[in-house]
Amino acid sequence: GRALTGPADPGEKADTLMAHPDVRRMLMDARAFTEGMRALALWAGLLVDLTHKAESEDERVAADDLLGLLTPVIKGYGTDLGYKVATDMQQIWGGHGYIVENGMEQFVRDARIAMIYEGANGIQAMDLVGRKLALNGGRAIQALFAEVGKEVAAVRAEARLADLAGRVEKANGELQAATLWLMNNGLTNPDNAGAAAYDFMHLTGIVALGLMWLRMGRTAAAALDAGSEDKAFYEAKLVTARYFGERFTPEAGALRRRMEAGAEALMALPVEAFARS
Questions:
Q1: Contact criterion met (CB below 8 Å) for 270 and 201
Q2: Which domains are present in the chain?
Q3: Which of 26, 84, 101, 173 is deepest in the core (most CB within 10 A)?
Q4: Which of 195, 185, 198, 197 lies closest to 267, judged by CA?
Q5: Cα four-point dihedral sign 194, 197, 198, 199
Q6: What pLDDT score does 17 carry?
Q7: Contact 239, 31 (CB under 8 A)
Q8: Residue 141: which residues within 8 A CB-CB, separation 6 or more?
Q9: Which residue is catalytic, options 118, 158, 174, 251?
Q10: How many CB atoms lie within 10 A of CB 51?
Q11: Contact predicate 228/234, CB 8 Å
Q12: Residue 50 and residue 116: Cα distance in Å, rounded?
């Protein structure tokens, strides 16, 4: 088919898939998530090293706190969206992505099992909410809030990152509000915590990736200002950072509102209603 704005390549019978916004959406979703999650996993690796080789006990404890908080997020949110990326890439292939011959269906199968093994993702979410969140008086989540706030302050004056900074700051505020809601409602009714856990894990994942994109964006802007030879690489980082801010962070508010709906409707149907007729 042709691009919506007219032929992108008039000399050909049809334009390439890259001319279509919906295809770009799936590719950019994959890029923004994958690059952000790689950065988050690398940061977690650094935190592991610091738990063994930190120069001070305070630094070691701080690293251990953040590592414990982020581990279920990396596993749960990471594999949830990793599977989505795999199915989106299959979708781009169309019917050719579904058949065995091209190999895409195997990527989808391989990505799907990651959501199940090493602690199914629902269990990871409950570990986050039921154990990691309240550990040491909530010290780890407070540290994450502070890390995000510090990075937002560091890039706010950078015009190329100001919009992203504002969006991540807003998402961080949604996470803080969601945390407070859990404190006020999860203890009095454990079902509220259970019903909210999965959304809270995803909300934490969005904020954590936002932190990574602020850091990567700051590095990219500095490299471009220094005249780096990898101009195209760093410019692409800034575009992807912008995309993450515009397309991922708005979900934070919806996740918080879904959490605040509580468990009542979720638990309302009797067990018999789920039985086969």
A1: no
A2: 17-121 (1.20.140.10), 140-263 (no CATH)
A3: 26
A4: 195
A5: positive
A6: 82
A7: no
A8: 69, 133, 179
A9: 118
A10: 18
A11: yes
A12: 29
What does the alpha-carbon distance between residue 70 and residue 73 come to, in Å, rounded to a whole number?
5
Instruction: Dig out the tokens for 165 from the structure.
Output: 């900074």
Whether 272 is a known active-site residue: answer no
Q: Where are the alpha helices (DSSP H) in 54-114?
A: 57-93, 95-98, 104-113
State the amino acid at position 187 in one-letter form: L
At CA 110, angle to CA 107 and CA 115, rounded to 5? 125
Q: At a CB cut-off of 8 Å and minimum separation 6, what does 239 contact?
A: none
Give me the pLDDT at residue 44, please. 98
Q: Could you list the mean pLDDT of each consecutive 10-residue stretch along the chain, which spans 277 residues?
A: 67 76 95 99 98 97 98 98 97 89 92 95 97 95 98 96 98 98 93 98 99 98 98 98 99 98 95 83
SS3 content of the chain, % helix, strand, coil (to 5): 80, 0, 20
